[in-house]
Amino acid sequence: MKNLKNSGIEWLGEIPEHWEIKRLRYVGYIFGGLTGKTAKDFNREYQKGFKPYITFTNVCNNIIIDSNKMEYVSIGDLETQNKVLKNDILFLQTSETFDDIGKTAIYLDDKEVYLNTFCKGFRVEKSAYPLFLNYIFISLTYKRYFLSNCSGFTRINLRQEHLLDIPLILPPLKEQEQIANFLDEKCEKIQNFIEKKEKLLSLLQEQKQALINETITKGLDKNVKLKNSGIEWLGEIPEHWEMVRLANFGIFLKGNGISRQDLIEDGEPAIHYGDIYTKYEISTTALKSRISTETAQNITSIHNGDILFAGSGETKEDIGKNIVYLGKEKAFAGGDVIIFRQKKNNALFLSYALNTKYVKSLKGIDSKGEIIVHIYASNLKDIKIPIPPLKEQEQIANFLDEKCEKIDSLITKIKKQIELIKEYKTTLINEAVCGRMDLK
Predict the structure, then answer these.
(1) Residue 412: how many CB atoms within 10 A of its CB?
(2) What angle do CA 300, 302, 304 make, to 5 degrees?
(3) Is 36 left (phi over 0), alpha (psi -120 to 50) or beta?
(4) Domain holding 355: CATH number?
(5) DSSP secondary structure letters along 40-66
(6) Is 404 helix (H, G, I), strand (E, B) or coil?
(7) Residue 311: other Cβ atoms inside 10 A
(8) Is residue 438 situated within a structural domain?
(9) Residue ranges making up the domain that contains 166
(10) pLDDT in single tens digits along all 440 residues of the chain
(11) Do both 15 and 152 map to the same domain?
């Protein structure tokens, strides 16, 4: 066990007695990203006269810069811009969220590359091993330091003097390298584990989607006679089923007037369009968001059996995502929630039918927009879905609920495993760079 001493810095606590503390400004220097550029100077694809640059998201999403995810910027022959060199550490000095501020990634390639405007680079000159330094910055202890020294509301900023004044806990260079190599090996194993689990997640989600597609279009009777649905993408359906437009057996209503600022801890149950693709799957009996009674007075109410579509989203995959509300409480729907109300068919069956791959593709085709994607009731009303007799609808819905619940249970378990291993990785890095563990 290492002998420890008081670091003299409250948030650092004790450190190994042979380690020293130096401010960041004494081990290297900070340099800026691109300057004097406009939107026309950037492109996602290479073109003549353009050079690769490291994007904000490449720094945000990685510990080591991913050289396969470069974008391109126009750089003139006589233009002076800072280049990123091998072993440079790149900081997010400004961000929209507190979670991202201070994130770092290290560049380990030799190719000529530049840095986006919203990041800062740090170049080590002495006393520090760059890979070890990068692990220090992504540790939980230093994350807390960044959070305590940033400011802003709509845009969170970390001032350069706060970066330069960071007190670094530095073992001898050889020990820094040993710790970095130890963490490289451990983190690689953890990442391999995560990738395998994420692949399994994808397979389970594909299995679930395939199950829904097959059951909703072919039914439960494997011996039933089939007929052409009349829709190429859909293929054959049981011959006693019908293809019916949504507008033929229900009406569309529009939610209104709930913003994120209206959401409170306790109050009337409500749903925001973003909730549909982030908080629920096929159905729900209880809504997680709440609004005040006063706000609810002017909001569209929803009833048991209403199918709720997300009218807006960030991607074509999000757009038109729907759930069915099966709760008994009166509830309310915000703007960009499209409500489909009907009484003729089983609502749970309809929700499954509207979440098939076939219908999702239709909703994606009809969506509009680039940054925010929209879809409207007028796009949804002409969607045709296969409709079996009511009793068969109920049987199919119950069957899918049972099967999907088992798949969802496995998905939840795997997500928890991924979450726990990420927590372990965070703890491992923090303990190693703070000198609180033996590398054996």
Answers:
(1) 10
(2) 170
(3) left
(4) 3.90.220.20
(5) GGEESS--TTEEEEE-HHHHHT-SB--
(6) helix
(7) 25
(8) no
(9) 4-171
(10) 578 899 989 889 899 999 999 999 999 999 999 999 999 999 999 988 899 999 999 999 999 999 999 999 999 888 899 999 999 999 987 777 777 778 899 999 999 999 999 899 999 999 999 999 999 999 999 988 888 877 766 667 777 887 888 999 999 999 999 999 999 999 999 999 999 999 999 999 999 999 999 999 999 999 999 999 999 888 999 999 999 999 999 999 999 988 888 899 999 999 988 899 899 999 999 999 999 999 999 899 999 999 999 988 777 776 778 999 999 999 999 989 999 999 999 999 999 999 999 888 887 776 666 557 788 899 899 999 999 999 999 999 999 999 999 999 999 999 999 999 999 999 999 999 999 888 86
(11) yes
Q: Return phi, psi of residue 27, to 5°.
A: -115, -5
Of 113, 116, 105, 118, the C-alpha closest to 61 is 105
350, 333, 362, 337: which is closest to 390 by C-alpha?
A: 350
Q: Which tokens hold the place of 372?
A: 């925010």
Same domain, 379 and 265: yes
- Tokens linked to 133: 């330094």
- What is the spatial distance between Cα 184 and Cα 105, in angstroms, rounded to a whole number? 14
Using an 8 Å Cβ cutoff, are 135 and 433 in contact? yes
Terminal-to-terminal C-alpha distance of the chain: 11
Close Cβ partners of 360 (under 8 Å, ≥ 6 residues apart):
317, 320
Q: HEC string of 372-397?
A: CEECCHHHHCCCEEEECCHHHHHHHH
* Euclidean distance between CA atoms 136 and 131, whole angstroms: 9
Chain-centre distance for alpha carbon 335 = 23
The tokens of 43 are what?
A: 């492109």
